[in-house]
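Chain A, query sequence.
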Amino acid sequence: MVRTLALLLLVLTALPAWAAPKADLWQRWTAHDPASTLEIDHGDWDDFLKRHRLAGADGIVRFDYGRARAERGALDLYLGGLAMVPVSRLNRNEQRAFWINLYNALTIRTVLSRYPVDSIRDIGISPGFFARGPWGAKLIRIEGEEISLDDIEHRILRPIWRDPRIHYAVNCASLGCPDLPPAAFTAQNTETLLEAGARAYVNHPRGAEVKDGGLTVSSIYDWFKEDFGGTDAGVIAHLRHYAEGPLADALAGITRISDDRYDWALNDSKR
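Chain A, predicted structure.
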């Protein structure tokens, strides 16, 4: 028994701190209706965000989980409404907004269900002995299918839309993550929010920083490098597209990434 436990400990310590899932299309969710005029009302989620989303002096948006706990019922009602949506009958733009809002609302509800916590990774409800965090847990049923956060991000959003800006839209409740969007996504505002999210994150030090001639980036660009061209050059080209001011100037002579980092601390307004 002692030897078995020792071997298990060795395996655990040898595992990487984070292994990002690959994009793996869930074919069932490719169904859509290009002619559909159905529109989903995300007003309740928009109001919820505006009440509890707080911009910090350090340029990082936080969320007031302590105060939001009293309104979990309103969040549950919104999510209950999303569970009734005939997603396969929507057009692509409505679907994209639906899945992004669903991901972010589920993430907030998951944190609220265990709050206070230091990090979302401490919410160990995912199945599997080596799993960490809540991303693999089935959290809601949509059109008869049990859905997890991993399903939404890696089996629906990433493989269907193939847009690296998705990473600036879905929020993992951490300080290192791109900010929780300032409004609910809709078919009409998605492009604006994606562009604004990309520009804000790239130009914040947690997105990209050049110091002493070396480029340090968010670990998102390492974990999901395939979404940004698959190489350092692809990531740097993406950063240059959105970089402004001193960062844009500093990136001009950069040809490789020196390091990456990420802060998993909860994006709590108390921090």
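The chain has ten helices and seven strands. The first strand starts at residue 53 and ends at 55.
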